[in-house]
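Why 3'(2'),5'-bisphosphate nucleotidase CysQ? Reviewers of the renewal asked for a concrete example.
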Amino acid sequence: MRAADSVSYTDDLSLLTEAARAAGEIARHHFKRDPQVWDKADNQGPVTAADLEIDRMLRQRLGDARPGYGWLSEETPDAPDRLTRERVFVVDPIDGTRAFIKGEDTFSHSLAIVENGRPVAGAVYLPIKDRLYAAALGQGATRDGAPITPSGRTILDGAEVLGTKPNFQDQHWTGGRPPVTQRFVSSLAFRLALAAEGRFDAMITLRNAWEWDIAAGALLVQEAGGLAQTRRGAALRFNNVHPQVDGVVAGTRAVQGALIARLA
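Here is what the prediction returned.
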């Protein structure tokens, strides 16, 4: 029996939200207690003892609950068998590890289930804020159980857009930097969640984005009523052989479309 024949998206989402909260318990135990930190190879950034402990817990908990699903995580060596699975867990144990190390409260746990290349359930949990974003395909998106929607902004001028400063340099844009206000939070998953709930009008990252950073957040945006695509306006597809996508632009449909139209 195929995975999609036996488990509903709602059941999968319940599994993810419970696991996200369990991850938060581990993160809070390590938070501001100087967990051991290592630098990854190839300038891939830091990893902490908390990242690794959460990864082990999630892999066991989620894998035991859904043994037929594939596994893709930032902190687990990749294995090609995930490419043969209909549904795949796509997990970032801690998105925003640098913020976690600094004692900032904007890091998150990003958990998604992808079915045949598209996210069908996703949870983004900020344990220090105790804030849970969740979505399942066709069922809308929520923050702490309440429905969320994008900001509704219809023009680019004056929009508030989340992203790092290099994304807004003139060379990336036709006609120079767009007339928007740049804002920043460290977690890509949190940026997507903030765009989904309308706290900001859009988010952008022009660099190749790892799937585990964005799978859950992209579903949040789409289920809330916004749009999330690659920097070239293509659909986001997940569980790729190389688990990256060509940047992300997400937000209200009008602002998101205007940003993509302006990209050089």
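Residues 108 and 126 are 5 Å apart (CA to CA). This is the kind of structural detail the renewal will allow us to pursue systematically.
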